Protein backbone atom coordinates (compact mmCIF):
# COMPACT_ATOMS: atom_id res chain seq x y z
CA UNK A 1 0.00 0.00 0.00
CA UNK A 2 1.32 3.43 -0.91
CA UNK A 3 2.26 5.54 2.08
CA UNK A 4 0.75 8.96 2.69
CA UNK A 5 2.85 12.10 2.80
CA UNK A 6 2.93 11.62 6.55
CA UNK A 7 4.43 8.13 6.56
CA UNK A 8 7.97 9.45 6.79
CA UNK A 9 7.48 10.19 10.53
CA UNK A 10 7.65 6.42 11.15
CA UNK A 11 11.36 6.59 10.20
CA UNK A 12 12.02 8.54 13.37
CA UNK A 13 11.24 5.40 15.39
CA UNK A 14 14.64 3.84 15.97
CA UNK A 15 15.25 0.11 16.39
CA UNK A 16 15.96 -0.92 19.97
CA UNK A 17 16.45 -4.67 19.70
CA UNK A 18 18.51 -6.08 22.54
CA UNK A 19 21.66 -8.13 21.99
CA UNK A 20 20.79 -11.74 21.07
CA UNK A 21 21.87 -14.68 23.21
CA UNK A 22 21.99 -12.75 26.48
CA UNK A 23 19.94 -13.12 29.66
CA UNK A 24 17.49 -10.27 30.24
CA UNK A 25 16.63 -9.15 33.74
CA UNK A 26 13.73 -6.74 34.10
CA UNK A 27 13.64 -4.99 37.46
CA UNK A 28 10.48 -3.15 38.47
CA UNK A 29 10.51 -0.83 41.50
CA UNK A 30 7.74 1.16 43.19
CA UNK A 31 7.96 4.88 42.48
CA UNK A 32 7.97 6.96 45.66
CA UNK A 33 6.93 4.06 47.87
CA UNK A 34 8.20 5.72 51.05
CA UNK A 35 5.24 8.04 50.63
CA UNK A 36 2.91 5.35 49.26
CA UNK A 37 3.53 3.14 52.34
CA UNK A 38 2.83 6.05 54.69
CA UNK A 39 -0.32 7.10 52.86
CA UNK A 40 -1.71 3.56 52.89
CA UNK A 41 -0.80 2.72 56.49
CA UNK A 42 1.61 -0.12 55.72
CA UNK A 43 2.64 -2.08 58.80
CA UNK A 44 6.27 -1.40 59.70
CA UNK A 45 8.80 -2.83 59.14
CA UNK A 46 7.00 -5.38 56.94
CA UNK A 47 3.46 -5.30 55.64
CA UNK A 48 2.72 -8.87 54.63
CA UNK A 49 -0.41 -7.85 52.65
CA UNK A 50 1.74 -5.58 50.48
CA UNK A 51 4.38 -8.27 49.89
CA UNK A 52 1.71 -10.78 48.88
CA UNK A 53 0.17 -8.22 46.54
CA UNK A 54 3.58 -7.74 44.87
CA UNK A 55 3.81 -11.55 44.52
CA UNK A 56 0.34 -11.60 42.95
CA UNK A 57 1.26 -8.92 40.41
CA UNK A 58 4.45 -10.84 39.56
CA UNK A 59 2.40 -14.02 39.11
CA UNK A 60 0.21 -12.25 36.51
CA UNK A 61 3.33 -11.26 34.59
CA UNK A 62 4.73 -14.81 34.69
CA UNK A 63 1.41 -16.29 33.59
CA UNK A 64 1.30 -13.99 30.58
CA UNK A 65 4.92 -14.32 29.45
CA UNK A 66 6.18 -17.90 29.21
CA UNK A 67 9.79 -16.87 28.56
CA UNK A 68 10.14 -15.63 32.14
CA UNK A 69 11.72 -18.48 34.07
CA UNK A 70 12.33 -16.93 37.48
CA UNK A 71 11.28 -13.92 39.51
CA UNK A 72 12.52 -12.49 42.80
CA UNK A 73 10.71 -9.91 44.89
CA UNK A 74 11.42 -7.87 47.99
CA UNK A 75 10.13 -4.59 49.39
CA UNK A 76 8.66 -2.57 46.48
CA UNK A 77 10.69 -4.31 43.76
CA UNK A 78 10.49 -7.39 41.54
CA UNK A 79 13.09 -8.81 39.14
CA UNK A 80 12.18 -11.08 36.22
CA UNK A 81 14.62 -13.33 34.37
CA UNK A 82 13.94 -14.09 30.70
CA UNK A 83 15.40 -16.97 28.74
CA UNK A 84 18.58 -15.97 26.93
CA UNK A 85 17.09 -17.22 23.65
CA UNK A 86 13.79 -15.36 24.05
CA UNK A 87 12.37 -14.04 20.78
CA UNK A 88 9.69 -12.03 22.57
CA UNK A 89 8.73 -9.03 20.40
CA UNK A 90 11.92 -9.54 18.45
CA UNK A 91 13.77 -8.53 21.66
CA UNK A 92 12.61 -4.93 21.30
CA UNK A 93 13.49 -3.21 24.55
CA UNK A 94 10.64 -0.70 24.73
CA UNK A 95 8.01 -3.35 23.89
CA UNK A 96 9.24 -5.81 26.51
CA UNK A 97 9.78 -3.21 29.20
CA UNK A 98 6.48 -1.43 28.72
CA UNK A 99 4.40 -4.63 28.48
CA UNK A 100 5.84 -6.19 31.63
CA UNK A 101 5.72 -2.92 33.54
CA UNK A 102 2.16 -2.02 32.63
CA UNK A 103 0.84 -5.53 33.33
CA UNK A 104 2.59 -5.57 36.70
CA UNK A 105 1.12 -2.18 37.60
CA UNK A 106 -2.40 -2.95 36.43
CA UNK A 107 -2.38 -6.30 38.23
CA UNK A 108 -1.19 -4.59 41.44
CA UNK A 109 -4.15 -2.23 41.27
CA UNK A 110 -6.58 -4.92 40.08
CA UNK A 111 -5.77 -7.16 43.06
CA UNK A 112 -5.41 -4.35 45.61
CA UNK A 113 -8.94 -4.74 47.12
CA UNK A 114 -8.43 -8.47 47.79
CA UNK A 115 -5.25 -7.79 49.77
CA UNK A 116 -6.19 -4.47 51.37
CA UNK A 117 -9.92 -4.96 51.93
CA UNK A 118 -10.13 -2.13 54.48
CA UNK A 119 -7.71 0.35 52.84
CA UNK A 120 -8.86 2.46 49.91
CA UNK A 121 -6.30 3.43 47.28
CA UNK A 122 -5.73 7.16 47.68
CA UNK A 123 -3.99 7.59 44.35
CA UNK A 124 -2.77 5.35 41.50
CA UNK A 125 0.66 3.89 42.29
CA UNK A 126 3.33 3.72 39.58
CA UNK A 127 6.50 1.71 39.10
CA UNK A 128 9.71 2.26 37.18
CA UNK A 129 11.58 -0.43 35.26
CA UNK A 130 14.86 -1.19 33.55
CA UNK A 131 16.34 -4.05 31.54
CA UNK A 132 19.82 -5.33 32.27
CA UNK A 133 21.57 -7.81 29.94
CA UNK A 134 23.90 -10.46 31.32
CA UNK A 135 26.19 -12.57 29.14
CA UNK A 136 26.40 -15.68 31.34
CA UNK A 137 24.68 -17.56 34.14
CA UNK A 138 27.41 -16.44 36.57
CA UNK A 139 26.31 -12.80 36.39
CA UNK A 140 22.67 -13.88 36.65
CA UNK A 141 23.41 -15.82 39.85
CA UNK A 142 25.36 -12.89 41.23
CA UNK A 143 22.55 -10.49 40.29
CA UNK A 144 20.00 -12.44 42.35
CA UNK A 145 22.51 -12.90 45.18
CA UNK A 146 23.02 -9.13 45.16
CA UNK A 147 19.27 -8.46 45.46
CA UNK A 148 18.95 -11.01 48.25
CA UNK A 149 21.88 -9.56 50.21
CA UNK A 150 20.13 -6.20 49.86
CA UNK A 151 16.93 -7.76 51.26
CA UNK A 152 18.84 -9.09 54.25
CA UNK A 153 20.71 -5.86 55.01
CA UNK A 154 17.60 -3.68 54.70
CA UNK A 155 15.37 -6.01 56.68
CA UNK A 156 17.82 -6.40 59.55
CA UNK A 157 18.19 -2.63 59.73
CA UNK A 158 14.45 -1.99 59.46
CA UNK A 159 13.62 -4.64 62.09
CA UNK A 160 16.05 -3.07 64.57
CA UNK A 161 14.96 0.46 63.65
CA UNK A 162 11.23 -0.16 64.14
CA UNK A 163 11.80 -2.14 67.37
CA UNK A 164 13.56 0.94 68.76
CA UNK A 165 10.73 3.21 67.64
CA UNK A 166 7.68 1.03 68.32
CA UNK A 167 8.81 -0.85 71.43
CA UNK A 168 11.45 1.37 73.06
CA UNK A 169 9.72 4.65 72.24
CA UNK A 170 12.79 6.18 70.57
CA UNK A 171 12.24 8.95 68.03
CA UNK A 172 13.09 8.06 64.44
CA UNK A 173 16.07 10.45 64.65
CA UNK A 174 17.34 8.71 67.81
CA UNK A 175 16.83 5.26 66.27
CA UNK A 176 18.86 6.30 63.20
CA UNK A 177 21.62 7.64 65.45
CA UNK A 178 21.69 4.49 67.60
CA UNK A 179 22.07 2.22 64.56
CA UNK A 180 24.56 4.36 62.70
CA UNK A 181 27.78 2.43 61.99
CA UNK A 182 26.58 -0.79 63.64
CA UNK A 183 27.56 -4.16 62.19
CA UNK A 184 25.10 -7.02 61.57
CA UNK A 185 26.17 -8.85 64.73
CA UNK A 186 25.44 -5.77 66.84
CA UNK A 187 21.94 -5.47 65.38
CA UNK A 188 21.28 -9.18 66.10
CA UNK A 189 22.51 -8.64 69.66
CA UNK A 190 20.42 -5.50 70.15
CA UNK A 191 17.27 -7.27 68.95
CA UNK A 192 17.92 -10.25 71.22
CA UNK A 193 19.04 -8.52 74.40
CA UNK A 194 16.66 -5.55 74.33
CA UNK A 195 13.61 -6.98 72.62
CA UNK A 196 13.95 -10.77 73.01
CA UNK A 197 13.84 -11.15 69.22
CA UNK A 198 15.77 -13.99 67.59
CA UNK A 199 16.23 -12.46 64.14
CA UNK A 200 16.70 -15.85 62.48
CA UNK A 201 13.19 -16.86 63.57
CA UNK A 202 11.53 -13.96 61.75
CA UNK A 203 9.37 -15.00 58.77
CA UNK A 204 11.65 -16.09 55.90
CA UNK A 205 9.56 -13.99 53.48
CA UNK A 206 10.78 -10.88 55.31
CA UNK A 207 14.41 -11.97 55.66
CA UNK A 208 14.92 -13.53 52.22
CA UNK A 209 12.27 -12.17 49.83
CA UNK A 210 10.01 -14.18 47.47
CA UNK A 211 10.97 -16.42 44.57
CA UNK A 212 8.66 -17.52 41.76
CA UNK A 213 9.98 -20.32 39.56
CA UNK A 214 8.47 -21.70 36.37
CA UNK A 215 8.35 -25.47 36.56
CA UNK A 216 8.80 -27.26 33.27
CA UNK A 217 6.99 -30.54 32.78
CA UNK A 218 8.17 -33.30 30.50
CA UNK A 219 5.59 -33.87 27.77
CA UNK A 220 4.02 -37.31 27.51
CA UNK A 221 4.33 -37.35 23.71
CA UNK A 222 6.26 -40.51 22.83
CA UNK A 223 9.53 -39.83 21.10
CA UNK A 224 9.65 -41.54 17.69
CA UNK A 225 12.53 -43.96 17.44
CA UNK A 226 15.14 -43.04 14.85
CA UNK A 227 14.58 -44.77 11.53
P1 LIG B 1 12.12 5.42 44.41
O1 LIG B 1 10.96 6.04 43.70
O2 LIG B 1 13.43 6.08 44.12
O3 LIG B 1 12.19 3.92 44.24
P2 LIG B 1 11.05 4.88 47.04
O4 LIG B 1 10.42 5.84 48.01
O5 LIG B 1 10.14 3.89 46.38
O6 LIG B 1 11.85 5.73 46.00
P3 LIG B 1 12.75 2.62 47.76
O7 LIG B 1 14.23 2.69 47.98
O8 LIG B 1 12.29 1.87 46.55
O9 LIG B 1 12.22 4.12 47.81
O10 LIG B 1 12.16 2.02 49.07
C1 LIG B 1 10.86 1.52 49.18
C2 LIG B 1 10.26 1.88 50.52
O11 LIG B 1 9.01 1.23 50.71
C3 LIG B 1 11.13 1.50 51.71
O12 LIG B 1 11.02 2.48 52.69
C4 LIG B 1 10.47 0.21 52.20
O13 LIG B 1 10.70 -0.02 53.56
C5 LIG B 1 9.02 0.49 51.92
N1 LIG B 1 8.24 -0.73 51.71
C6 LIG B 1 8.11 -1.41 50.54
N2 LIG B 1 7.36 -2.50 50.71
C7 LIG B 1 7.01 -2.53 52.00
C8 LIG B 1 6.23 -3.43 52.78
N3 LIG B 1 5.69 -4.53 52.26
N4 LIG B 1 6.06 -3.16 54.10
C9 LIG B 1 6.59 -2.05 54.63
N5 LIG B 1 7.34 -1.15 53.95
C10 LIG B 1 7.55 -1.40 52.65
P1 LIG C 1 -1.13 -4.96 19.41
O1 LIG C 1 -0.98 -5.68 20.71
O2 LIG C 1 -0.13 -5.35 18.40
O3 LIG C 1 -1.23 -3.44 19.56
P2 LIG C 1 -4.00 -4.88 19.04
O4 LIG C 1 -4.95 -6.01 19.03
O5 LIG C 1 -4.01 -3.98 20.25
O6 LIG C 1 -2.53 -5.47 18.81
P3 LIG C 1 -4.12 -2.49 17.38
O7 LIG C 1 -3.55 -2.33 16.01
O8 LIG C 1 -3.47 -1.69 18.45
O9 LIG C 1 -4.21 -4.04 17.71
O10 LIG C 1 -5.64 -2.14 17.27
C1 LIG C 1 -6.50 -1.92 18.36
C2 LIG C 1 -7.85 -2.54 18.11
O11 LIG C 1 -8.77 -2.13 19.12
C3 LIG C 1 -8.49 -2.15 16.78
O12 LIG C 1 -9.17 -3.24 16.27
C4 LIG C 1 -9.44 -1.03 17.16
O13 LIG C 1 -10.47 -0.91 16.27
C5 LIG C 1 -9.90 -1.52 18.53
N1 LIG C 1 -10.30 -0.41 19.38
C6 LIG C 1 -9.50 0.37 20.13
N2 LIG C 1 -10.17 1.29 20.78
C7 LIG C 1 -11.47 1.11 20.42
C8 LIG C 1 -12.68 1.78 20.75
N3 LIG C 1 -12.69 2.81 21.58
N4 LIG C 1 -13.82 1.32 20.20
C9 LIG C 1 -13.82 0.28 19.37
N5 LIG C 1 -12.71 -0.39 19.01
C10 LIG C 1 -11.56 0.02 19.52
MG1 LIG D 1 13.25 3.32 41.97
MG1 LIG E 1 10.89 2.40 45.13
MG1 LIG F 1 12.78 -0.24 46.23
MG1 LIG G 1 -2.77 -2.28 20.39
From TrEMBL:
Alphabetized GO MF terms: GTP binding; magnesium ion binding; tRNA guanylyltransferase activity
Keywords of the record: GTP-binding, Magnesium, Membrane, Metal-binding, Nucleotide-binding, Nucleotidyltransferase, Transferase, Transmembrane, Transmembrane helix, tRNA processing
InterPro entries: Thg1_C_dom, tRNAHis_GuaTrfase_cat, tRNAHis_GuaTrfase_Thg1, tRNAHis_GuaTrfase_Thg1_sf
Entry binding sites for GTP: 29-34, 75-76
Protein name from the UniProt record: tRNA(His) guanylyltransferase
Function: Adds a GMP to the 5'-end of tRNA(His) after transcription and RNase P cleavage.
Family label: Belongs to the tRNA(His) guanylyltransferase family.
Free-text remark on how the cofactor is bound: Binds 2 magnesium ions per subunit.
Any Pfam family hit: Thg1
Regions crossing the membrane: 96-113
GO biological process, any: tRNA modification
Residue span(s) of domain Thg1 C-terminal: 138-220
Broadest EC class assigned to this enzyme: transferase
Catalytic reactions of this protein: a 5'-end ribonucleotide-tRNA(His) + GTP + ATP + H2O = a 5'-end phospho-guanosine-ribonucleotide-tRNA(His) + AMP + 2 diphosphate + H(+)
Entry's EC annotation: 2.7.7.79
Residues that coordinate or bind Mg(2+) 2: 29, 76
Positions annotated to bind Mg(2+) 1: 29-30, 76
Cofactor: Mg(2+)
Domain tRNAHis guanylyltransferase catalytic: 6-135
Amino acid sequence: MAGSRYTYVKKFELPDNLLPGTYMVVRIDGHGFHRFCDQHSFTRPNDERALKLMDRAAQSVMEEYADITLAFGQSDEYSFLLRKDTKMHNRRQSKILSLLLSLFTSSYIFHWPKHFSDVELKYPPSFDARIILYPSSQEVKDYFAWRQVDTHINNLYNTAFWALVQQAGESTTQAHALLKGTQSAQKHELLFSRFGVNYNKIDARFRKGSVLVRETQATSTPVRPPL
